[in-house]
């Protein structure tokens, strides 16, 4: 299979690259063909409902109200049990696994058909808590933290940062619920291979509640949307912004530059995703800490080098969260929408995607991984997104660009030029640390690469749920996925943001319906796990 996949990728992508190099303006033609669909899809998913004279996307209302409910229902688990989550990742409670009685083998049912997924007594998962967290974090800590933060601030001003932080804190509770359910309802076959995520807790969990038809429908809908999201936000957007940075840093020219960079990314990703979740986990557990230290270290250096202005940056964040500038469309509601929308894209809390990676963890206690999962939005949004935001706000103290003055996803600079997404962050870094834009370029490539790896797994699991677990099923998905890596590098930022945003946010609809029905199951699992911890102490 490995040899076949590599030959297929090389053949298809090689022909694609040749076509790109021989066709004048092909990147533009691809974009022109893709843009109408991106606009239609964005308008559909971000359908607004009028509240106090302002239109608020329904999907954001579901995310916000759902996260608020889980935060209160579970007694502020995101705050009170944050230290417990750290201890679980450190392995403090690993000995509890030994107290678990042997699991009786049984056959699971998917869509009414018996499938060969017998839970073996000797298998509880494929990766440890840290590897599961690293894989999931690599899927969330991506270019959303660099590029989308820049987009949020350029459109919504400094105040968008406040709402991003709030969304991250609330999202921790949603992530706790979905990751617990992901482990509780996963399938494990005779060889220890894990199949989990919303597809399984929607179908099996709702069936337990007497809603089998609804469960099957929502599971299939989620799987279809997740495949699309893996092509979009988890893949095309990442290669798009990585290509933008490489082209900008090295001054590359030529109509097919983006496509060729996308081809290189596709080949590198293809080598890793062949090995499945274990290979992906081994790569991400090394790449994620390195890229986080690299990026966070550079951001902190800039922040401390301008420490006298940091209080002004925070003052702007809090002040403009409630009294935004006149140039910001929609006023406070517009700023709130930008903050929550970009946070949702970045940490994916409520979308359910990360539960697929967490489902592979080696544990007998679903709630233990739920606790691990709540760390993701904190790392992703509260820490990394906030650092990016402060760097950009400090950079723009002198008014390099006007907040809210945006065209096609690009901020208009004072000299009339345009900058979009990651290039705004790059300029902010370069202005503080000459030459740091190259460090940022490396970080961007690592962020993009690790996110592509994780989302390839999310999409593949959803693809398998829809089309079965065969060798050719895997091969088909991986080839299509890698073609989207090339496509993403060829289209414009505006098009890829519209498509990617909407694809990831679309996951919220089926997933949150399931969470709002199944949350009592989470409370039972959480009670059991905490009782064992207290008994051990």
Automatic annotation (TrEMBL):
The keyword Transmembrane helix applies. Pfam families: Na_Ala_symp (PF01235). Keywords: Cell membrane, Membrane, Signal, Symport, Transmembrane, Transmembrane helix, Transport. It is found in: Cell membrane. Its main location: membrane. Residues 1-21 form the signal peptide. The chain crosses the membrane at residues 58-76, 146-166, 217-237, 257-275, 287-307, 378-397, 438-458, 479-497, 503-520. It is a multi-pass membrane protein. The keyword Signal applies. InterPro entries: Na/Ala_symport. GO terms for cellular component: plasma membrane. It comes from the Bacteria. One of its GO terms (molecular function) is amino acid:sodium symporter activity. Belongs to the alanine or glycine:cation symporter (AGCS) (TC 2.A.25) family. NCBIfam families: agcS. This is Alanine:cation symporter family protein. It comes from Flagellimonas aequoris. The lineage of its organism: Bacteria, Pseudomonadati, Bacteroidota, Flavobacteriia, Flavobacteriales.
